[in-house]
Amino acid sequence: MKYSSSKEDYLKAIYHLQSQDGVVSTNELAGELQTRAASVTDMLKKLKDQKLLNYEPYKGFRLSSEGRRVAVQVVRKHRLWEYFLVEKLGFGWDEVHEIAEELEHVTSRKLIERLDEFLGFPKTDPHGDPIPDSSGKLERAQQISLSELAVNLYAQVSGIGDQSSEMLELLKHKKPVVLMDRYLPGVAAPHVLVDNFGGVVKGMKLLFKKGFRNIAFVTVDLPLIQMEERERAYLQVLKSNGISQNKSMVLRLKYNYEKDTAVNLITDFIKKNPRMEAMSVTMKKSRKAVAGSL
């Protein structure tokens, strides 16, 4: 049975919401679709009449087995089209969502199966979300959030949780590996080192060992011996590896900057240095700002 584009949009939105909360409320769905609660109520009655929803009094509603089947097929088409647009037509991953929102309502099953075959049966879309197969089965990889990743552990990023256009635009730029030389609770970092000069030297050497050469340095502009020692260590390791200092790869933040100001400055710093591969960061204040900019 075929359903209208608007009904498919509702079913897909409910599918995503119930995967987070189990059941979905009218207000929650209205917020997701950016429409009035009264409009949502009218549509929910229609979907319930078509046995696409199950309603739980005082709790909310969730998809029936048929509603879930329809929603998963819409998700499948959406993610296949996103993959096609990025991999075959050269669109940026921040450009494809709205186009795929239109293409996902194509009703030809034969076309979608041919598209899947043409693309080589991809398992994930460009953002790392799993693509359901033709039977609606999803293969979910075991993942953890970067904020839960243990220190001194390398990992491969396999998906993007925040898929807003702003975040995807930022991630189009080559992202640096962030090296912290002090422990900061609540912020995941690939390495934690413990002293000023020696800590930066060890960290820089490790980054060079991993193959990084274009390494930036972010610090706080304070007349303290430890700040001088850290920057001296950074420059010494560059020199010992035959790399001249590039002033554009050093950012000194004022200590009295508000966090939002520092985040914006670091974001611009990253964008202006597209060849940046890694970043050595000093002091808690600048590390928090870096964490907020990534």
Secondary structure elements and pairings:
Elements lengths: L4 H17 L4 H8 L3 H13 L3 E4 L3 E4 L1 H23 L8 H8 L5 H10 L46 H7 L5 E4 L16 H13 L5 E6 L4 H16 L9 E4 L5 H14 L5 E4 L2 H10 L1
Parallel strand pairs: 3-6, 4-5, 4-6
Antiparallel strand pairs: 1-2
Instruction: Output the radius of gyration.
Output: 24 Å
- Give the DSSP E fraction (strand runs of 2 or more residues): 5-15%
Strand order of the largest sheet: 3-6-4-5
Class of the domain at 173-293, according to the CATH hierarchy?
Alpha Beta
Distance between the termini: 44 Å
Give the H and E element order.
HHHEEHHHHEHEHEHEH
CATH fold field value of the domain at 173-293? Rossmann fold
Q: How large is the count of helical segments? A: 11
CATH superfamily annotation of the domain at 173-293: Response regulator
**DSSP strand tally:** 6
Largest sheet: 4 strands, parallel
The oligomeric state of the chains shown is single chain
Helix content: 40-55%
Provide the low-confidence segments as ranges. 180-194
| Class by SSE composition | alpha/beta
Give the overall silhouette. elongated
Q: Based on the structure given, which CATH architecture of the domain at 173-293 is correct?
A: 3-Layer(aba) Sandwich
Average per-residue pLDDT, rounded, comes to 79
Question: Explain this structure to me?
Answer:
This protein has 11 helices and 6 strands. With 294 residues, the protein is an alpha/beta fold. Among the domains are: 5-63, Winged helix-like DNA-binding domain superfamily/Winged helix DNA-binding domain (Arc Repressor Mutant, subunit A); 173-293, Response regulator (Rossmann fold), CATH 3.40.50.
